[in-house]
Amino acid sequence: MPEFDVVELEPTDHIEPGETAPDFTRPLVTDEFWEDRSLAGLVDGRTVLVFTPMIGSFVAKYVWDELADRGWLDRDERFVGVTASTPYGVSRFLDENDLPVGIVADPANEVADDYGLAHDLDGMAGVSEPRLAFVVLDADRAVEAIWVADEWPEFPNYDELESELGLD
Amino acid sequence: MSEQPSTDGEPTITFYRLQACPFCERVTRSLKEHGLEYRSRFVEPLHSRRDVVKRVAGVRTVPAIVDHKTGVTMAESANIVDYLESTYGGEDVDSATPAGAAADAGGED
What we know:
Chain A: This is Peroxiredoxin. The complex is a heterodimer. Chain A is of the alpha+beta class.
């Protein structure tokens, strides 16, 4: 019997391929500054939204490290993070990890909620954050593919993910 | 154009600012008074983490603005407020008002 619990997450009614990803405007944080950007304005080609738990969690760290190590952040697709941290937290994370990417700072977690990807943190009243998810959008913001964690924690098999999301 | 500027379009002015910095708020007020569209870029409190401001404006202090309409880049709140007034103050404003008149020590943070 395992001595640890991998918690199964509740099923969610998240966005599905074929739907248009809801537009939103939030601060997009890079390691230099943050400014309001709309998703509609950001998407000018194939785009991968990467929803992660809060910055500071090992989940967020592992995911961004993996994407950088695999060279995915240098691909033609544009990778855009979404998380429920403050811009300051995101900014320092990007700086410390030398990540050439922008992450949307949404402390209220409304974007993840809107996409059906919110996760209320057990034992921390009032804290909601995205569950780990990858959403591939075409140039018109139509969802092409999506991978959503349904365990806590769960990391994708990145090799499989690459083909599931049509990134290979 | 909507009152709330779209940051994805091309607002007239890019405004580098620091959260809760009074010198920056002075510029904010002036931008609003003149009905100017601006794109806010918030930067870090640490000067060492303000490479973008250094690159754009030559200094690491904020506020700093880039006016895409005139090509002017400027730092220090007193200078910026004077510039906005003389550039966008309207016809009834005496453009000959000496800039020095309002130039209490150049605000910066």
